Amino acid sequence: QSLVWNDPEVENFPGFPEGVTGPDLMDKMRKQAERWGATLHTEDVERVDFSVRPFVIESSERVVKAHSVILATGATAKRLKIPSEETFWSRGISACAICDGPSPIFKGEELAVVGGGDTATEEALYLTKYGKHVHLLVRGEKMKASKEMRNRVVANKQITTHYNTECYDAFGNAKGFLSGLNLRDTKTGETSKLAVKGMFYGIGHSPNSGFFSQYVECDDLGYVVIKDGGAGTSVPGVFSAGDLHDTEWMQAITAAGSGCMAAISAERYLGTEGLLVERDAVDAGAGAGAAMTPKRKRAAAVKEVGHRLGGSPTAVGVGGVVPVAAAAASPSPVAVKKPKKTGTFKGKKNTLGSSGVGVGVGVDVCSPATTTDDSVFTFTFSSPPGAGFAASASAILGCASGASVVFAFTFLGPSGSSPSFCARIASSSFGNR
């Protein structure tokens, strides 16, 4: 389960001024994903194989093959595993000072931080903004934190450092919230009690990367190594999101942002490799099953052309109907000129892989009174004499009344040639094919 799922009150996620429970936030995210066509399976992934194409993911219920994978398994906060830990978890005990420190239950109270490294010292310093006093519990004889962080802790009068000290249990009040810790001196074995309303673990996290680390490069601590500050991993087509590679910020909002980066990266990768799968458009704004508006259809057509062919869609008009986009294959978009009355448009050649040229056209059907679900548009393509490549003769695609349709064509020709091309609607008919 997500760390957010286990949080009874998320106070620092944008859009929820009154806060939101972790389960409620996750439920809203789930519904939003489903609204846009995602299929969710609540299963445990048992094995992956990134050495084959497509990749193989095995869960307890199914085997899935995929051309691209986003890893978002996160990291698990290290705990002390004291007897009463679960009793007071999120009721005084926490593994994230930045997430939970501002909570009203800690304001002006005595607080404790467990750990002696940079994470623990940083959390102790941070908590002085909210707590009355902070106790730093260090198990050894000295802190392992950097010199700068040690000096800052020593200089802060709101922090008391307890060396050779470990927490072996905790106790609470009648309302079920933490009220104190049972401590033990690691040298003498002497025990004592410390009254605090909050204890924060600053002993690090463990990334959940074990079952795929043999395929994806990880650092010495097990965190996934990402490329160029983005989301890509050492395996092309495999991307990372969230705390699985984030060793610094570890917030719900930063994890969500990196999830967006990973999703866009995966989509771009699939488009570049020619692996995008065409799906029926979903009008999320109108709810499941509702018809898309013409405006949304145009936007969907433009976006689809851009993704499929790697170009930047440009609105054009062609021969009596209204195409909403035209684009050429990567590496750059087609230079579309204003169409002439003859219904043609011209553009410069762009290489599609090593095989030829591509162009996409989105069409908005203009005669809803006469069109049917089997309306047919036929496109013809021609090239100037001496261009040196053969164009596709025609393409036919059915569409519903008032629908937007995307046509995508590939011109197969000599690699490296740079002819211009023209496209024209030669005919259109309405009725059954």
Task: Describe the protein's architecture and organization.
With 433 residues, this protein is α/β, with parallel strands linked by helices. Helix content is 18%, strand content 27%. Among the domains are: 1-32, no CATH class; 42-70 and 206-273, FAD/NAD(P)-binding domain (3-Layer(bba) Sandwich); 79-203, FAD/NAD(P)-binding domain (3-Layer(bba) Sandwich), CATH 3.50.50. The chain contains seven helices and 22 strands. The strands form seven sheets. It has a five-stranded parallel sheet with strand order 6-13-7-8-9. A four-stranded antiparallel sheet has the order 17-22-19-20, with no helix packed on it. Strands 1-2-3 form a three-stranded antiparallel sheet, with no helix packed on it. α4 (118-127) runs parallel beside α5. The chain starts with 21 loop residues before the first helix and ends with a strand.
Structural class: alpha/beta
| Helical stretch tally | 7
Classify the oligomer. Answer: single chain
Q: Can you count the beta strands?
A: 22
Q: Supply the CATH architecture of the domain at 79-203.
A: 3-Layer(bba) Sandwich
